[in-house]
Specification:
Radius of gyration: 28 Å
Strand content: 35-45%
Helix content: under 10%
Order of helices and strands: HEEEEHEEEEEEEEEHEEEEEEEEE
Oligomer: single chain
Number of helices: 3
């Protein structure tokens, strides 16, 4: 009898344990954070119990009915989340971050827009495998939140200026990309915008000495640079980047003195505006209230690939747009804009963006500047520069061997670095009607060990075959075989084949990317092109921790 009771008790205990484990593995699929009715701002973490998402399942997120993303939970991510929860002794959550200030494409909107303050509904849908279907909708959960990115609008007149404190050092992250706008560029395959090249960098900004006038000597130092072109990524550590650059800057952002200029020609030729300085936006010298407008003359547009002496200096229009949260700071947002069609100082008949010459250019700029007005700190700058015009050189799309760098700074010949190769871009069309030569395909690979050159594009009519890799093994890499040649004459030029890959090398960097995007029909003489240059600079590290 006693043995029978012990067996029965054990069975009950095992049953209870199994129920507990089953309940844990089948936690209700619900948004735990933010709670329904919460007031939120900036980057909102949407958290759902990890145990409610079965193996092989994924979560789709919607904001006000507009799809934002479908996120699978991989075994590695599940393990990582679980381990982190065990370390902090907190619940394990699947987390999606909704950037409530980022402009997005939504239904019935002509262009991306940022959500407005007010009530918004966040919805999560759980999809999981079923017997005869790899993915079926299992659960839906939603919460309504009150978005409040803006602050008080009745602040009166305030003076905006940068405040410098001896010894302060701040860290900034800067990203940028050059993008070809497919819908506004002739002869481009596909309907999606095409990223040509992008970069990600870390910059330290320190105050060395402050003057009674309010100006200061500041030190700029780029600590890291990563450049991506196609599938090729080159990372340059601090020791291979330029030494620190010193400036005297006044409290309104005007540079009074700079000890030297840093050349980033290697990257300018790729079409990215890499800079070793923070470049504080100029602030108004008068007190302003929300809604005030003013003009700032002699502002450089900072077009990558255009020499400093040839940079257009224009007058930009500024508006004090309001007080809102950014990066955890209450900030004054200044919106700056420029339209060359409205005048404002642009006189150039042509400009160079990367390796592409744009004639009869029309330029527009939209920029948002966020200043923590109480501490006088630059928090964020988001800038989009759009260039539209005609071109006879095509869009830079070919690859190149990464630019060589010496240990002490930028140089044409680098003995210590081995930048990876970039993929050669597709060759362009041959010109219709004759045996005219097509534009060059992939850029030439850098000099160095076993480097290979890009193939050249199709040389005339007919569809060219792909370029092939050049041979390696010599101190200076040989040039790749030509892309496809002509097959026959015809009324329309065929597309040249893609260029070969530029090889890795420890010598000098490759030349400018010279490949162009092929067209699907005959070449359009002087096609229209639209390029978009996007740059974001954000405060990441508080004072005295940026690692100058």
């Amino acid at each position: 009898m006693l043995q029978r009771r012990m067996i029965l008790s054990a069975a009950v205990l095992l049953s209870a344990t199994a129920l507990s484990a089953g309940a844990q593995n089948q936690a209700p699929f619900t948004i735990r954070r933010p709670p329904d009715g919460a007031t939120v701002r900036e980057k909102v973490k949407v958290q759902i119990p990890l145990a409610s998402i079965p193996e092989g399942g994924y979560v789709s997120i919607y904001v006000d009915g507009d799809f934002r993303g479908a996120i699978p939970v991989t075994p590695d991510e599940r393990e990582k989340i679980t381990e982190e929860a065990e370390k902090t002794k907190s619940p394990a959550y699947f987390t999606y971050t909704w950037d409530s200030k980022a402009p997005v494409k939504i239904r019935f909107a002509a262009k991306p827009v940022a959500p407005k303050d007010g009530t918004h509904e966040i919805t999560a849908k759980l999809f999981a495998p079923a017997e005869k279907n790899p993915s079926v909708l299992k659960e839906t959960t939603s919460v309504k939140v009150n978005l409040a990115n803006s602050l008080e609008s009745n602040v009166g007149a305030i003076r905006l200026f940068y405040k410098f404190v001896d010894g302060d050092t701040r860290g900034y992250n800067r990203t940028g990309a050059s993008i070809m706008v497919a819908g506004l560029s002739q002869g481009v395959q596909g309907s999606d915008d095409q990223e040509l090249v992008s970069y990600n960098s870390d910059l330290a900004y320190g105050v060395e000495d402050k003057y009674p006038s309010g100006s200061a000597i500041v030190r700029n130092k780029m600590n890291r640079l990563e450049v991506r072109q196609g599938s090729s990524v080159s990372v340059y550590p601090s020791e291979q980047l330029p030494s620190a650059l010193f400036q005297e800057v006044d409290q309104f952002g005007d540079v009074i003195y700079q000890n030297h200029s840093v050349s980033f020609d290697q990257f300018a030729q790729m079409g990215i505006p890499v800079s070793a300085t923070l470049e504080l936006p100029k602030l108004p010298k008068q007190a302003v209230t929300i809604g005030d407008k003013w003009s700032t003359p002699n502002v450089s547009l900072e077009i990558p690939g255009t020499a400093e002496a040839d940079q257009p200096k224009v007058t930009v229009n500024s508006t004090f747009a309001g007080i809102e949260w950014e990066g955890g700071y209450p900030t004054a947002r200044i919106h700056r804009s420029y339209q060359s069609s409205l005048g404002g100082g642009l006189k150039a008949k042509s400009i160079t963006v990367g390796s592409t010459t744009v004639t009869s250019p029309s330029i527009s700029m939209e920029e948002d500047v966020y200043i923590a007005y109480r501490s006088g700190t630059l928090v964020k700058v988001s800038k989009t520069l759009t260039v539209t015009g005609k071109t006879d050189t095509g869009v830079a799309g070919g690859g190149m061997g990464g630019p060589g760098m010496g240990g002490g700074g930028m140089a044409d010949m680098g003995s210590s670095s081995m930048p990876p190769a970039g993929a050669g871009g597709p060759a362009s069309m041959g010109k219709g009607g004759g045996m005219s030569q097509g534009m060059m395909g992939g850029g030439r690979g850098g000099r160095g060990m076993s480097s290979s050159g890009g193939g050249s594009g199709g040389s005339s009519m007919g569809f060219g075959g792909p370029g092939m890799m050049g041979g390696g093994g010599s101190p200076r890499g040989s040039q790749g075989m030509a892309g496809g040649g002509s097959s026959s004459r015809g009324p329309k030029g065929g597309g040249g084949g893609p260029g070969g890959f530029g090889g890795a090398g420890s010598g000098s960097g490759g030349g400018a990317p010279r490949g162009t995007f092929g067209a699907s029909t005959g070449t359009v003489p002087n096609p229209q092109i639209t390029l978009k240059l996007v740059t974001n600079t954000e405060l990441k590290t508080p004072a005295s921790k940026a690692g100058l």
